[in-house]
Write a structure and sequence with these properties.
Layout (H helix, E strand, L loop, with lengths): L4 E6 L2 E7 L1 H7 L3 E8 L3 H17 L4 E7 L3 H9 L3 E12 L14 E4 L5 H11 L13 H17 L3 E6 L2 E11 L4 E9 L7 H14 L4 E7 L3 H9 L3 E12 L1
Length: about 260
């Protein structure tokens, strides 16, 4: 097991967590994420959370975050009883296949290309100025400047991983797109996509072309995680035929 990961099991119940140095880099203090928790009773869940929090403190963590399904009432109760505060709500969305997408006029079709370091200042500026949703951005206890820095860093990390596409229209950068293929290229996780506010009218064509590109590569399915507060993007995904799968509540605790 990776030394930055934590797993504790008790019978059928378990809790898993990981350190998140990418968040620490932006926030300036230790961070970790609960990646999974399963228990049959609220008491078991509270005991598991205590184990995870002990591990987190031993690793210098000050901020612990985790998401649980909206219907997992006993886990939500355990979170509250353990001093975790709900700070955001996310939806998982997915689409099977890419047939039937809206037709885009040729003049509105953007161009995708692999991002390079010369693009980075422009792409980071878009992330800083035009992204307002996400678990850190929606946590009232986190300063906006620090949360925005996390998104800016994320863009740089995606570029370094070779996952970031720069999107242009008429020679101007209008946004970016990042995805990760899994299941031997059959499934795409849509990581981060956005158009700058100046070119908001091209947001729909940007998403349509991103999906068409997946279909052209024989990808069968795609999914994404969206903040429930990001109404504009949720409506956009609805126009594109995505279905709603699950609701997740995000909790955090300062240790």
């Amino acid at each position: 097991m990776n030394p930055s990961d934590f797993v504790h099991r008790h019978g059928r119940s378990h809790v898993a967590a990981r350190l998140t140095p990418w968040d620490k880099r932006a926030l300036g203090f230790g961070t970790a994420e609960l990646t999974s928790i399963q228990a049959d009773t609220t008491e078991e869940a509270c005991a598991l959370l205590e184990q995870a929090e002990t591990w987190a403190r031993q690793n210098g963590v000050d901020y612990l975050f985790g998401r649980v399904p909206a219907e997992a009432l006993l886990l939500r109760l355990a979170m509250e009883q353990s001093g975790h505060t709900m700070v955001e709500c996310s939806l998982t969305l997915s689409r099977d296949g890419f047939a039937g997408l809206p037709v885009i006029p040729a003049r509105m079709r953007p161009r995708f290309r692999l991002a390079n370091h010369g693009d980075l200042p422009t792409l980071q500026a878009i992330a800083h100025e035009d992204f307002h949703h996400g678990r850190l951005l929606e946590d009232p206890a986190i300063a906006r400047a620090l949360a925005a820095r996390r998104t800016v860093n994320w863009v740089s990390d995606l570029l370094d991983q070779g996952l970031l596409q720069t999107v242009e229209s008429n020679g101007k950068v209008i946004g970016f797109h990042a995805e990760r293929l899994t299941d031997e290229g059959q499934h795409a996780n849509l990581i981060l996509t956005g158009a700058t506010r100046r070119y908001a009218v091209l947001a729909l064509p940007l998403w349509i072309c991103a999906l068409e590109r997946l279909g052209n590569r024989q990808v069968k399915r795609c999914s994404t995680l969206v903040s429930a507060a990001n109404v504009g993007v949720i409506n956009l995904y609805a126009k594109l035929g995505f279905r709603y799968d699950t609701t997740l509540f995000g909790y955090r605790k300062f240790l």
